[in-house]
Each structure stands twice: as C-alpha cells, then as structure tokens.
Amino acid sequence: MDIFPVTIEDEMKRSYLDYAMSVIVSRALPDVRDGLKPVHRRILYAMKESGYDWNRAYRKSARIVGDVMGQYHPHGDSAIYDAMVRMAQDFSMRLPLIDGQGNFGSMDGDPPAAMRYTEARLQRVASEALLEDIDRDTVDFQDNYDESTKEPIVLPARYPNLLVNGAGGIAVGMATNIPPHNLGEVLDGCQAYVDDPDISIDQLNQIIPGPDFPTGGLILGRTTIRDAYHTGRGSIIMRGRAEVQEVRKDKMAIIITEVPFQVNKARMLEKIAEIAREKTIEGITDIRDESDRHGVRVVVELRRDVEPEVILNQLYRYSPLQTSFGANMLALNSGRPELLDLKAIISAFIAFREEVITRRTIYELNKARDRAHVLAGLAIAVANIDEVIILIRAASDPVLAREQLMTRGWPAKDVEPLIRLIDEPGRSVDADGNYYLSEIQARAILELRLQRLTGLERDKIANELEEIASQIRYYLEILASREKLLDILRNELVEMKEKYATPRRTEILDGVFGYDDEDLIQREEMVVTVSHTGYIKRVPLSTYRAQRRGGKGRSGMATKEEDFVSQIFVCNTHTPVLFFSSRGMVYKMKVYRLPPGTPTSRGKALVNMLPLQQGETISTMMPLPEDEDTWSNMYVMFATSTGGIRRNKLSDFTRVMANGKIAMKLEGEDSHLIGVQTCSEDDDIMLATDRGKCIRFPVKGVRVFSGRTSTGVRGISLADGDSVISMAIINHMDADSDTREQYLRYASAKRRSENADEGDFDPTALETTLSQELLDSMAETEQFILSISQDGLGKRTSSFEYRVTSRGGKGIGNLDLSRGKNKTTTVISVFPIEETDHIMLVTDAGKLIRCPVHDVRIAGRSTRGVNLFNVADNEKIVSVSRLEDDGEDENEEDDGVEIVDENPEITSEDISIKTQQVEGEGGE
What we know:
Helices cover 29% and strands 23% of the residues. It is α+β, with helices and mostly antiparallel strands. The chain is rod-shaped and about 155 Å long. 39% of the residues are buried. Heterotetramer, composed of two GyrA and two GyrB chains. In the heterotetramer, GyrA contains the active site tyrosine that forms a transient covalent intermediate with DNA, while GyrB binds cofactors and catalyzes ATP hydrolysis.
C-alpha cells in the first residue's frame, strides 16, 4: 500500500470542507423544489413505501422510525422521531404532513410521548400532493447509504412546500429561516407567475401579502415583509392577539388568544410573572392559563386603577408577546445553497413542476406505446387470423412458431395508422404494406386465448387500440406544446387550492408600528422631590394624604445632616421638565425618566442623570405643557436672585439636546436662577424677596429677547443683603387704587357674611360705586397670593392689594417680618393659589406636610399670617409646592399620618401561573 505525506493544514481544510458540504447539502438546508430536508423526505417516502397512507390504519411511530433508520437515514432514532413529530404538530406546520395519534407535544414546550406510545400515518395532502406520481419516473433516484435500495433525490411536490410550511436549519457557516405562508395565496402567486413570468416581486407581494403563521397572531407593518421578499432577508415583527375584557365588575383583564409563532407559551407566562414581580410592569394582579384543546386563552388580570392599554403595550415591550421572526430564505437550488427572493422561489418551483409534468407525460407515453405495440401485434394477428393459425399448427414447437411469426411479413391493412402513431425505431410498415412482428408481439400472439378471436373480443381490441391511440396523440401534443403543459400545471394548482387551501390565520396590520416610551408609561400624578445637594426622585401623589394646618407632617426624604429638600412640584409622568443649571444651561427630561422612589428614599443624584460639569448644579426646574403645539404662543420668563429678568419664546427650548443648551447668561458669581415659568402677554409678573418686598409689573414691560446668552433687564432694585426668592405669573390687573379699595372692602364683607353663615350676601349692604358687572368681573380676575416664611407662618392675600408698577422699582411690603418670636426669619415662597388647592411644605430636616389651602387665613399685605407648620427650633421651611385639587375626598388628621399604599408591592404569592389541566393521549 502506497503512503503519501500530507500536511495537516491541507488535510484539516479538506476534511472540514467535506464535512461542511455534507451538512449543507445532506442535512441542514431544504431543497427549493419540495421544501424538504433529507430526513423529512426520507420519512415521507418510507411511509409511502410501507403503505401508511391517510386512508389506512395508524402505525406505531417506532416502526416508522425503524424503517427510515434501517433503509434511508443512518442516524440516531431521536433525530428521526423529532423531525417526524414536528411534521405532525399543527402549531409548527402551516400544513401538517403527518397525521399523529397520541401525545405529540404542545405549545408549552411539553415533549412528545416516546415513539413506542404514539402512532402516525401520512396526511392526505402529503400522499396526494408531495408523493403523487413518484412511481412514474418524475424524479431521479439515488442509492441509499448501503446501496441496498433506492431513494428519491426530491419529491414531486405539487405545491411550493418551502413557502407553505417554511423551514429552519443551521448549517456550517450559514443558516436558513423561512416563514410559513398560506397555501391558497401561494398557489395564486404561482398561477400569476405562470400567466406572466415577468411579474415583479411587488406584484407577487400583492397576491402573497406576507407569512401566515400556524399560531395566528399579528404582523406589524409591510415594509419588513417587502424587504424579505426582495432580498431574502428581513425581520418580521409578530404580536400575539390580545384584547381587553371586563372579567368582573370594574375588573379588567388582558385576554391573550393567539401567541406569536415559535413562542413557548409556558415560558411567556413565566416571563410576564417575572417582570410583574420585579415591578418592570406594575398593575398585574393575577395570571391564569385557561387554554384547552379548543384554543389558547391566557388571562392577565389588572388592578382597577391602571390603564389596560398601557399594560398591554408594556407586555408587547417586555415579554415574548411581541417578538420578531428573522427571515433568511436560504435553500438548495440546483444543489447549491442560494439566498432566494420570493420570485426566485416560485420560479424554481414552476420550473420543477414543468420538468415533473414533462417526465410524467413521457413515462405515460412510453407506457401507452408499449401497450399499443402489443395491441398492434394482436391486431395484425386478428387481421390475418387464418394464416396465423395455419402457421402455428404447422410449427413443431413454440420457439419455431415464434420465429416464423417474426420472420414473415404480415399485411398491415387497417393497423398501419396506429403503427405510424407508435413511431417505434425500426418498427414500421415497409413499401409493400407488410409489418414484421417483434418478439414481444409474437409471444403475445402465441399466448392469445381462443376467446379473443370472437367478434366481441376483436371489437374490444380495436376499441382499446383507438383509446391508446388517442392517449398517445394527447401525450405527444403536451410534449409538443408548452402552453398545453402550462394548462395542466394551472389546473393542478387550482385543484390543490380547492382541496387544501384554508383561510388566513395571521392578520397583517398596515402602517409603521413603533411605540415611544410614553406608550408604556401609566399616566399618574407624581410628586417630584429634589434635595439641596442634587438628589431627585418621583413618588406617586396618592402616597400622601392631607393633614390640617399645624400638623407635624411626615418624612418626605431621608437626607444627610448637611442635605435638605430644596424643591418639590407635582406633575404628570408624561410632563417634560426643563432643568436649568447654575451656569445658565438647560436640560430636558420627561418625568417618567426620573428615578422612582418611596417617601423616605433619597433618590438619585442629578449629576448621574445629566451631563453636568464639575461644580455645576441644577438651580431650578420648570414643568412644561405636554402638547408642544401650544408652545408657539407662549413665552418663558427667567428671574435671577439678583433681580434680573428676561423673556424668550418658549419655542426656543423645544429642541434640547442630550448635552444641554445655553439658557441664560448670569450676572456675576452670586447670581443664580430662582424661577423660570411660562407666561403670555396678558399676564403680570410678581417678584418677591426674602426680606418681605415684592413688585408687580406687566409681562409686556419686558421685551422679547431673541438670543439666549444675554443677562436680561432689571426686574427689581434690591437693598443690600436682599435677594429675589420667587417669581409668580398672575392675572393682569388694570384697576386703579380707588376701585381696588372698594372691591377689597366688598369682598371682605362678603367673606365675613359667608363665614358667619348669614345666608346670601346682600351687595346693597355695602356702599360702593362699582357696578355689579364690574364686581363680578373683578372677582373672576382676583387671585390670592400665598406667602410663607421659614418659621412656618403664612397667609393668603388678594392680588388686588399688589398694585401694578413699572419694572425696576424697589417694590412694596409683602410680609411683615418685624413681628413674631423669630426676628431672623425670611420669606421662603410667594405664589398664587386656589381655594381648592393643597400645599406641601418641606423642612431642611426632610419633614413634609400637606394641608388644604382653605385652612390658611386671608389677610392683608402687612400682616404676618397664621401658623402652618410647627417647625422645631433648629428647623426651617425650605420648599413649598402647590398641589391642584385632585377631586379626592381625603381624611384630614391633626397629627402625623402613615402612608396609604394604594400600590402594594407584588410578591411571588400575589402572582401565580394557574394552568388548567388538559387531558392528553399517550405520554410517558
């Protein structure tokens, strides 16, 4: 034996390539013609050969696996059985090819019973559509692995099984993943291609709108489908079918009736329960699987206070209820792996069907010619029966008789046209009109029974000859005309559609489907709390309950000794918030992006959420209207601690990049922003200082600045040591001092009458020169300004007590700080308030109290007010926020109050997957 040296690199390269090609061609990739991998083809062929047809009895799966493994597929029995099981699963195949009896697995990932328990047979569509005509020389055969028998290279499929049932497989260096389609639509597409081979992919896409998954569900958008059909690749977004239903009184639930293709339903439920426990989705109270043999039904019960559509969008986002199918339409075409578009697949199938029909026709023609050949000999014998009988009687033995029959020329007579039709090489009528019999014909004459010589039998031979002759003519016409061949192809496609097509299960939704994060966020009022050192959090407003004025409050944030709560406001989760920094930059963020917290948690540092520079802090925040279309008619007013003010269009801050935007240039190192609010030209501006001064002037008195880098204009002239602590936007007032004084007396008398419960107030009881119409108009314009000092005292004052002046003045008195036990206190906040509002006060120790505004007395500008918050000696108010009336009837308490948790934490005991028991056949 010769031995040749081979480098290990060459040997590894050659061996690996051989292995790779074996996997690609003989294992992992389907053939574009019948859409089957070798293992599936061998299973179907073995079942056909063994007679396990759709109209026969079921056979044990172990016997089928044994036949396949013993004759065609020399691999493990588990691989064969797994492939066979998949072909029987109606949730895996759009058109199942095997009729299984027993436990063949489930959508929950349950394994099938062992092959010794289950039984199977061919589905009718597999027998009549994939294996039909396989015995008519329609496809090529090859030796099996031990050359003991033959197996088909491809099945003569009568429909594009590659598209109808799809395929999936991983080869070496390549993979395929073809989605299933609707049989009727695919056959319509094939007919359209036969009618017009130049049809475009877009036109085919009109006929075949997209995949049709066996589990139903929804497909979002058509763009990805079009990409997959044009390029062979695309990511198709699938959703389960779900709807919101009322399961009990005021109890809503999401009912899932269809799941995406290839999604394990049990794992999907586990994932939903997991994200509910982890608070990724809040509002789910129970999950039940009520699926049975009639269909899928998963019930996801919700809390009464949540929006079901939001929860459903969150399920689409965070659970397998929405997933994608990565189409990669790779298949073997002419024995080579090729990435195919939709038209290429249909074109290859139609070309294959033309070949099958042609080969079948040739096979039938040859069979007809063989029979006609015999019948021609019999017809010659019948036409010359007397001479034939004499010759046979004179012969000494059958061999001599056969030779004499073959060597003698027999008159063709009326059989000559049939002989010409048969057109056999060397078997024609000579110039004298004689025909020479072949050995086959001679044998048939010698075996002719005497009863065939009767007149009736002679007529039968003649009739059969005519029938065979017409068949031969028909087959020759098919082979001579491609149009006739295509007509047969069309008729077979129509027959397939009428027999096996079913309605579409998967719905395709038009449009581009995507959701922003807002679609996943429940609309809820939030209390946003910011500490002095820059920690921020959001807490649901429902966490806090109202207390009467003078209460002790409750903990609003856990703070360090050097930190305290500096700002608090209430807004919706979808509200955009502008963050203005100490260096005049502005940043933008939605409330739902702020870190959630509990009343006692500290929150998250703003420096970790915004791109702040070294030493830069957030000085003020401004919630904005949600609808940006309203911004064009609105202005934003800036106020600084040094008394500067500037007006810009709100639209200047519509687009704020992630790295921020310049908002305002500040005056010196001691200046910082104390307020930024939206306003219109019909409003007034009120600036208040910590020394108890304030000034009111119209918005129109401040020109609109086109730039964002100026310092603005002077709003109030400050005394030494004084600084602006708040800016308020209030209704504009045109009344002179006399009118304002008369109205204030009138309004005070009216309040006293109402408080004394004296019935309806009589306007005539107060002497005034103002008309009732003017009084009513002023009452609509009047606002009450809430002023609160650091030591917890506060009051409400009518806006008519603050006269309108020009900007830049020194202002007037607002709060008398000279009286009271705390002579060093300062004003902490001044803003307009409504009778039905609540206020929330926060101390530097992290204490918080919420109380209704109607408890705060209405007093004049020069008064000190009433006690709103009993602060400790070493404690002071640092922030006050207005809470608009939420319409809830809340209990009021005089003392501290514990949190009312309307959103209890979901535990593993609260959410469980309750699976209904379904009886099944078989199993191990």
